[in-house]
Amino acid sequence: MILLTHDIIDYNALTESVRSNAAGAVVLFLGTVRELTGDRRTVALDYDAYSQMAEAKLAELEAEARAKWPVIQVGIVHRLGHLELGDISVALAVSTPHRQQAFEAGQYLIDRLKVVVPIWKKENWSDGTTEWVHPGVTT
Amino acid sequence: MILLTHDIIDYNALTESVRSNAAGAVVLFLGTVRELTGDRRTVALDYDAYSQMAEAKLAELEAEARAKWPVIQVGIVHRLGHLELGDISVALAVSTPHRQQAFEAGQYLIDRLKVVVPIWKKENWSDGTTEWVHPGVTT
Amino acid sequence: MRIAVQLFAKARDLAGASRVELNLPDAARVADVRVALRQRFPQMEPLISSLLVSVGTEYANDQTPLRVGADVACFPPVSGG
Amino acid sequence: MRIAVQLFAKARDLAGASRVELNLPDAARVADVRVALRQRFPQMEPLISSLLVSVGTEYANDQTPLRVGADVACFPPVSGG
Questions:
Q1: How many domains does chain D have?
Q2: Any idea what the CATH number is for the domain that residue C42 is in?
């Protein structure tokens, strides 16, 4: 399952969707809205996406993971719109026969997602300012 | 939360228990009863534990993880008794500020659990035989 | 040739538009999009060199040729997750 | 000295008991438990050298001294998870 959604992420349903009698291991990763970045305080995040391309890139990532590890099932859901502190922005579940594979595939998927999938977040800082997060860009 | 239980593991409650506004990442690991080991077919597993020592060792593992990574919350639940194919035998959730820490701490905890926590599983093979699993012992 | 370009995140905010039409030379390549955006939106200058450009749903490089009707998008480095 | 020892998993099955009382020399150490188990339960022989021994909730080694009333357990390598 690959999904972009404005709704709260049901990670329980996502996890159930990857369980299998062929799997000995399931790894679920959740990204959640953290309050502190250094000494700056976040009050909310807004996520935007180029949805058509983001879904295509997520499908590519799934194919890459399946080529590298004996993945049984994988599911990735990314939330868009306005998120409050503690909300889940991304959930990613993967099942494999053995545990090392599940950890490696899960970490690969989230690491790659953060580099190649066209989704952006805008910080809403506690001082009332907002700021798009664009790694490597200093403006 | 550290728990040994004969009941079905509620990994949703476990995951919720580690979520925090201080965390940017949650990793949940599930161990599930896999049907095939090589060409042998499992129909069920029975788990037994030296419960008093197992709980003490799990608490030690939590302390070790907290010493190595900036863990916010951690929870480990291991099921005992008779498990069918696909059932969850262990669930382990950890939250940290950043994702790499959560993957590393999660993998450390499950890797160590499998070496030091006095819990044993007995295979119920499809040919009707049963066999305790004792790594490194050939009898 | 005229090319419609979608903009996202800070690029969209700086341009004040989520979609712009650009006049490009014939047989234009992705590098020409960068040049046209720089000219039309001077306020986008600090972003121009780091803008990512996609054609269809694939990342393109400055040499990638463009054709009329292609789905072109420009955006700064991603930060999902 | 008499020491009660808990047995688990295959060690329990081979002994046919989850708890056995062993007669050990005075000032016995963990190594003496291994010797006593081997004598009393010859069928446990293939497991003896790989048995793990705990005192309280800590793993012990063959030199660990025992005292009357200690919580001693013997079991083969673990396989949880």
A1: 1
A2: 3.10.20.30
